[in-house]
Specification:
heterodimer; A: mainly beta; Porin; 2 domains; 16-stranded antiparallel beta barrel; 2 helices; 17 strands; globular; disordered N terminus; B: alpha/beta; D-Maltodextrin-Binding Protein, domain 2; 5-stranded mixed sheet; two-stranded parallel sheet; 9 strands; 42% helix
């Protein structure tokens, strides 16, 4: 039959088929969009609680160094899972768990676990375990290595470090302040403070009857989009076995320009220790400045960076027992895809009493 | 089907495709040259925002219109001209930076979700009309009944000095 069909009839039949296909496809597309619309509307309503979302961060490193004390070769980084779960219209749970490789096992740690109630932008209150809002790096990047430009954190907030309490267990109030164009926000917390093991935050209960407190003020001026400046103060009474307790004051200040061309970070932290029952005090300080620049045009996946950091520990400090430190870092970050990057970093470190050493670090990091 | 007739079919399809392509190339992206409007749910308790305040809303730094009404951000999916305006003018970010920005905000517990992504201005209008607190950006010509247009720096789309042109 089709061999008897004229060319013009055949052509019309093909056009008709194409039109039918288009008409058949269009309702399917509309159905998909309608379903999507309904899903979004439902998601914005109150019917989908709890609504758990999980994001992961991890990395693989390679280290080569002329320091005998530094682990060399391939190293598996932390495997971090971050949880966000709205529980009701104004109530949200945030959690974070890390798995860190040790010589004979993985160490599992609940890094963050807190529930927050948002009254409005001016007042949010939460209870649980946080990244202590001292300085910038500790809350901005912490275990999300993919988020930070460099391979390593600054020494003042390094993993397992004790210069500042990187975690805080207690209550935290936060919000915006009516401040016209300054874009002020605050955080105020009351918690257990440091444990007898300085890197711990008293997860099973406070080590003494004194509660630590902190206050932070941050400005993000409306007219200077990308600029952030802030400061914080923290106070605690540290228990020392067999010795008088030590009053600890921590002060921090930071200035950040977060756009990537250029990206500028500067942070200062001072720690003052006052042994109780004496008039003596010990001032230690640490700071870093970091600059990076995402290259323009075809090279925009590439971001070279550099950082200088310095830590000075007061002689005779009753709490700190680590040396003064100077670290120079230079490296390059290449964002292979939107959610994964490789970094190559040269590190030169001078530690008082331990001399100078060099290291080359390579890292592949990602979020998933 | 004979070979000549098959060739004619192929030629028709190719010809049509080339015409469509030429048409697309000849007309610049509509949104690039046209006025954008910031639309909100009609009950949103705001009539006017400065450009900087609007940026804070889209950045997720302002999360509540008032204690009862959270801000619900809605943006077009990548490649749409409206999306490009949002990224270029409001966020001043690339697609990669936009993605990283929202991942970081959620990681820092500064937000609980990313902006909702939709694929057409029709859907944006429907969602903004349906969700209290919703805000989005569409071509001024695509505004439909059921939504309210915000003044930016005191100006509505089409007025002199309106900043989103």
């Amino acid at each position: 039959m089709r061999f008897l069909m004229s060319p013009s009839v055949a052509c019309c039949r093909r056009v008709a088929c194409a039109v039918l296909l288009v008409l058949a496809a269009a309702p399917a597309s509309l159905r998909a969009q309608t379903a999507s619309t309904e899903t979004i509307i439902a998601g914005a309503g109150a019917e989908n609680y709890p609504s758990l979302k999980i994001r992961g961060f991890t990395d693989v490193d390679y280290v080569s160094s002329d320091s005998a004390g530094l682990p060399q070769g391939f190293q598996l980084g932390q495997f971090v899972l971050h949880f966000t779960s709205p529980l009701a219209r104004k109530v949200t749970f945030f959690g974070e768990v890390s798995m860190s490789p040790l010589a004979d096992q993985f160490h599992i740690e609940v890094e963050r676990s807190f529930i927050r109630y948002d009254y409005n932008d001016l007042f949010k209150i939460s209870a649980g375990r946080y990244h202590t809002p001292i300085g910038y790096w500790n809350t901005a990047f912490h275990h999300g290595l993919w988020l930070q430009t460099t391979v390593r954190r600054p020494e003042q907030v390094k993993v397992g470090g004790t210069f500042v309490p990187v975690h805080f267990l207690g209550l935290l109030a936060e919000g915006k302040l009516p401040s016209s164009g300054l874009g002020l926000s605050y955080a105020a917390g009351l918690g257990n403070g440091r444990d007898e093991v300085l890197s711990r935050d008293g997860d099973a209960g406070d080590a003494n009857t004194n509660r630590a407190w902190l206050a932070q003020l941050v400005a993000r001026p409306i007219r200077a989009y990308g600029l952030e400046a802030g400061g914080a103060v923290y106070n605690d009474l540290l228990p020392l076995a067999g010795q008088p307790s030590v009053r600890e004051w921590i002060y921090s200040a930071h200035v950040v320009w977060s756009h990537e061309s250029p990206e500028l970070l500067g942070e200062y932290i001072g720690v003052r220790h006052e042994p109780q029952g004496t008039s003596s005090s010990f001032e230690s300080r640490s700071f870093y400045i970091q600059g990076a620049y995402r290259l323009p045009g075809w090279a925009n996946k590439v971001k070279p960076y550099s950082r200088y950091e310095q830590m000075e520990i007061a002689g005779g400090d009753p709490i700190f027992s680590f040396p003064d430190l100077q670290v120079v870092t230079a490296g390059i970050r290449v964002d292979l895809i939107d959610v994964a990057a490789i970094k190559a970093e040269y590190r030169n470190e001078l530690a008082e009493g331990a001399g100078r050493w060099n290291a080359v670090l390579l890292q592949a990091c990602l979020t998933f | 089907m004979s070979l000549p007739s098959r060739l004619r079919g192929i030629a028709a399809v190719l010809g049509g495709s080339i015409l469509l392509l030429l048409g697309a190339l000849a007309s610049p992206p509509r949104a690039a040259a046209e006025t954008m409007a910031v639309i909100v749910h009609p009950d949103t308790p705001v009539q006017n925002l400065s450009f900087a305040e609007m940026r804070r809303v889209f950045l997720g730094e302002r999360q509540y219109w008032n204690a009862e009404t959270p801000v619900v951000l809605i943006v077009r999916a990548p490649v749409a001209p409206e999306r490009q305006v949002v990224l270029d003018r409001i966020y001043r970010m690339s697609e990669s930076q936009f993605k990283q920005y929202w991942i970081a905000r959620i990681f820092r517990a500064e937000a609980t979700s990313t902006p909702k992504v939709v694929y057409s201005n029709q859907t944006i209008n429907e969602l903004v009309a349906a969700i209290p607190g919703a805000i989005s950006l569409v071509r001024a010509d695509d505004i439909q009944p059921g939504v309210r247009t915000l003044k930016i720096d005191g100006f509505l789309p089409g007025e002199a000095n309106y900043p989103l042109r």
